[in-house]
Amino acid sequence: MKVVTKKFELKKKKYISLGVKMLLKKEAIWALAPLAVIIGGYFIPRGFGWILTLALVGTIGYVGFRILQMVGFTQHEMSKTFFYRVSYELDGKHLLLKVDAKNGMPIEWKNFQKVFKLNDGYLLLIARGQFIFLPFDIFKTENDKKLTEVIFNRKSLI
Question: Domain range holding 15?
Fold first, then answer.
């Protein structure tokens, strides 16, 4: 059981937009911290204004910092391999990124934290800010797409 995909190149803008969506989805619980600071500041006389400002600046600063990390990752020399035109081979052992017939890089399934099924493809989370995106249109047949989902289910990733 092996799935071989068509070649695909992840655009840097798509990477950034997916990264921001993943950030908001995965770390949305932390939005409660500034909310708690704002509510707590309401009960402090004459302190609500600066506490509100602190909570807003902290939130905007954190989100802005994370977005800058993703933009910086796309510019870094070592991250260029994420944006090559590659094909993928998925089987029970690993995911293989193939630049050409001779050169490829295997990534074992244990290195992936989770797989998210989006409207237009699969998002394979490796680490914070590092992921692989497999759009549905790179699969050659509908059976390849189903087999890919079976592999993700067997590895308890989806």
Answer: 1-158
